[in-house]
# Entry
Amino acid sequence: MDFTKKKKENRSNRIQEVNSSTNVSSESFLGKTIKIKGNITSEDSIIIEGKVNGNIQSNNTVTIGKSGNISGKIEAEFINIIGKAKGDIFTGKKLKIYSSAKFDGNINSENVVIEEGGIFNGNMNMSEKKNK
# Structure
C-alpha cells in the first residue's frame, strides 16, 4: 500500500472541503508592466493594471485598475472600470465606472453606476433583473 499517495489525496480533499465551506475566492493580478495580446479566461476575479488587447471572461469580478488599459470584449458578473477600456461589456450583475475611468463601447448589464467625472461613450442596454 502506498501511504504517500493516500496522504496526498487526504490533504487535497481537506483543502477542497475548507475552500468550499469557507467560500474562499482567489484573484489574478496583472501588473502595470504586463502587456497581453490574446484572450483571458478565469473562474476567479481578475485585477488588471497592465494592457490587454483581447477579450476577458470571468465568472466573478473583473477590475480594470487606474493604470489598466483594455481593448476588447469583457464578460463577468461584476465589472469595475477605474482606468480605460474600449469594447463591449456584458455583466450578469453590475458595472461600475469610476470617476477616473473612460469607457468607449457598448454596455449590456442589469445595473450600471457611473460616478461623477467618469466618461462613457457608447450605447447601453439594461436588462430587467431576473427573479429567482
